[in-house]
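Reopening this ticket.

The earlier resolution said the output was attached, but the attachment link was broken on my side. Pasting everything inline this time so it's all in one place.
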Amino acid sequence: MVNFQEPYWLIFFYVIHGLIVLIVTLLLRKRMDDDNKGTITWLAITSVFLPVIGELLGLAAWFAAKLAGTNHMIDEYDDYVNFTPLNLEYLRYEASSSMDLSPISDALLRNDGVNQKELIVSLINSDIANKGRHLNLGLTNNNSETVHYAATTMNVLSTRFEKELEHARNELDPEAPMSFERLCNVYERYLASGILDENGQERLEKQYEQLLEEAVPKLDKEPWMYRSLGDIYVRRYKTDEAERAYHEMTDQFPSHPGGYLKLIELYYARRDWKNIKPVLTDLFQYVKEEDIPENQRFIIQQMGGKAL
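Inline output:
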């Protein structure tokens, strides 16, 4: 008769039990995802040291954790610990350093002829967008010298842009894509300057639209080309053509955020909520979150219902 109280039977049981636990653990780890492999290993170790009791207690703890959503709580805590708050310190510094500065438009409306003339002349070499708006304020000033300076500066800027445009056209080379990009850059800066009258603005927009429509199909495609083509269509109130250009950008460059963001901007302006949703879905699917411009990322996340 076998006596199960003998020590060697106990040792034999531990060895066989340990081998069975090891084999089952290896089989389960191959079939489970990485999130659960650690749990299986913990159950195996507990079972080896506490046969039967370890299995029962370990499985009970695992199922209890599943029901209570412990893993979800841990993930949320990890997100909380790793959350990086938006650093607004640089904004505070910029605001502090700009306390004594006045907007150009306010300065041009004051009765300070000397400072106004200096300010107008400084616009020639500045990088300020829409210079024409500020110069038009100078043209309506009560001071005749300020009006003269504003008119002269507007003529200087217009002449400079025209010469720059002519030079870029002469330098245009189909074998050199950068020459086309430089020409487009001049057009866009000229259009954004605001120094042209309504007829001049329309003439330049037509030229730029024709240039893009003829050149883009022939050149090696770049994201900025479709963006520029769509933008000029928007300027010309051709929203259907703009939509097609931005869609073409997303088709050609699905991992680039520009086309999706332009479509969202276009649909939002039209209050077209139905078409915004699939664009957001594609954006989150094909574009890495870090590739979305930081100044637009938060708004896009909120529009798509994504948590930070």
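Reporter confirms the inline version is readable. The chain has three domains: 7-82, 102-220, 238-308. Residues 7-82 form one domain.
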